């Protein structure tokens, strides 16, 4: 997960194909794709001054409906059927976290009604944009006999939290916050991270992070395990304020703000104690709707 090899330069022919496909796609689908194309062109324009992490797609010469080569071990291997109700929910954990990868990490800051602050990372995490929301799954605390983690208890009490995006430059500090500490421990102070006041919610942001989101609880859903007991809470938080460091903030030609991947240096979660870096990326345009007529 920590490859340091440099990516190959994108061949001119492959680049021309990608650009042609992007233009055709925008013409066919209109505004939403036009925004995607604007994002693509803006990012391409900034790549010359950025670290070389951009490579080619895996099979640049592929045309539908040709089949792509499957590794022999996969093609000839047998599928192992695993019934989650047979093995039980707890034994699904290593399977889930190693199969659903890579996962972004939400660095969640909360404050209790009494003012006790808490900070913890969560990789059961995703987002949506209209209205802008984050979705985080907060599992119950095994070291507290299945009770709620401080993060969830605080969200229940105050209905507020912040999410800071995790980047490589402060990973070790962030990882130090995920210990099974007592309720009165301030993880931000313990790890040496810096509190940044929020504008619309009480929980502070993490100053070392380049992207922050202030959130208010919109929905929550309790999930029950096979034994009928609560095992986690799915939290939907509406983002009421973004904060983006100017060093990672970019603009599309139409003026929309996006975050530069090279500058952000995001970290992802894999199985076990393994983390991943975004060391090689490539562009792959979505197909034109006209393909269904060919």
Protein model, in words:
- This protein is an alpha+beta fold and 294 residues long.
- It is 26% helix and 26% strand.
- It has nine helices and 13 strands.
- It has helices at residues 12-29, 31-46, 72-76, 84-87, 89-99, 150-158, 171-175, 187-191, 261-264; strands at residues 106-111, 117-122, 125-129, 132-139, 160-165, 195-196, 205-206, 211-224, 230-244, 249-251, 257-259, 267-269, 275-277.
- The strands form four sheets. It has a seven-stranded antiparallel sheet, with helices on one face. A two-stranded antiparallel sheet has the order 6-7.
- A hairpin with an 8-residue loop joins strand 6 (195-196) and strand 7 (205-206).
- Helix 1 runs antiparallel to helix 2.
- The longest helix has 18 residues, at 12-29.
- The two termini are 40 Å apart.
- The relative contact order is 0.19.
Percent of residues in beta strands: 25-35%
CA gyration radius, whole angstroms: 22 Å
For this structure, the quaternary state is: single chain
Low-confidence stretches: 1-31
What is the end-to-end distance? Answer: 40 Å
- Structural class computed from helices and strand pairing: alpha+beta
> Would you report the number of β strands?
13
Please summarize the sheet with the most strands: 7 strands, antiparallel
List keywords for this structure.
two-stranded antiparallel sheet, single chain, seven-stranded antiparallel beta sheet, 294 residues, disordered N terminus, globular, 26% strand, 26% helix, 13 strands
